[in-house]
Amino acid sequence: MKSSLSVNHLLGIKGLQLRDVELILATADTFKDVLNRPIKKVPSLRDLTIANLFFENSTRTRLSFELAEKRLSADVVNFTSSSSSVTKGETLIDTVNNILAMKVDMVVMRHPSPGAAAFLSQHVRSRIVNAGDGTHEHPTQALLDAFSIREKLGSVKGKKVVIIGDILHSRVALSNIFCLQLLGAEVMVCGPTTLIPKYISELGVRVEHNLRKALQWCDVANVLRIQLERQDIKYFPSLREYTMLFGINKALLDSLDKQIVIMHPGPINRGVEITSDVADSEHSIILDQVENGVAVRMAVLYLLAGKNEK
Question: Which residues sit opposite 186 in a β-bridge?
Fold first, then answer.
């Protein structure tokens, strides 16, 4: 295996090769060991400055990236659009170029427009990491999910993974489908017909509208939240009805004839798509996902910085 990525930016999983994903996961293994040491910091990116540009609200992803950057000893600049000149009409390129003029080496960006990270990579001289672009992709979430499955079950290859919930509005779902298939997993999506993209089966995934059948089929259930903020029309009658048909509770899990792994990218709508007794149960690896997110993002930043080639 080569020790460098085939890409200069992490814009999505779709642009990665299998060896890229395997290299990121292997590098994340090393960084997870670092995070479990008494001194959780390495000087790998000591000479680099990384700007976190978040044009959308985020807590977990932004904090995870910031912690990963600081664990690698990078200098960090944080930018949020609500407190910037973007509100005065400044364009995305102008904003980023002003930041790059301050000698920033890498940009981590979340933006509400699909393709924003790819657009930026063509116009500025800096490494770009896509931290989520609209309903398109969220590559580091898919990578940390794959890392967490591998850590729990020993491998991703051959595993059956169902993604449940609001597939239509989810960048996590699309990145997960690409990543899991690349690693050799079988993928199913489950949810109301109105929240399943019309042409999703063309990606080679199964579609199931019966939650019990989906859970009985899978080894891993990755549960997505209902993204009400992205829904401009009503896709189902009420949250109560959604919960009755697609909510996962402990009684449902206990009624299965096998034990499955429960995942969730967060934030959790407790009592809607998943109950607290499931989120906090022995089935759940949700907190492992959070911990693994830092290690995986450390690996991505380190590899893109090209320090491994020195």
Answer: 160
Q: Write the CA distances from 127 to 11, 109, 130, 143, integer angstroms.
A: 10, 11, 10, 18
Cα–Cα distance list, 298 to 40, 62, 138 (Å): 12, 13, 16
Longest dimension (CA), the chain: 59
CATH of domain 139-286: 3.40.50.1370
20-38 confidence digits (pLDDT tens): 999 999 999 999 999 999 9
pLDDT (tens digit per residue) in 121-136:
988 888 999 999 988 9
Architecture of domain 18-137+290-309: 3-Layer(aba) Sandwich (3.40)
Find how far residue 25's CA is from the centre of its chain: 14
Q: Report the distance separating Cα 144 and Cα 298, nearest Å.
A: 11
* pLDDT tens per residue across span 79-120: 876 655 554 456 777 877 787 788 899 999 999 889 999 998
CB atoms within 10 A of CB 250: 14
Backbone angles phi, psi at 108, to 5 degrees: -105, 120
Tell me if the pTM is above 0.90. yes
How do residues 261-296 score in pLDDT, each as one tens digit? 999 998 888 988 999 999 999 999 999 999 999 999
Amino acid identity of 202? E
Residue count (the chain): 310
Structure tokens at 69: 């950057």
Question: Which pair of tokens denotes residue 137?
Answer: 């992709």
Name the E strands within 12-133. 49-54, 75-80, 106-111, 127-133
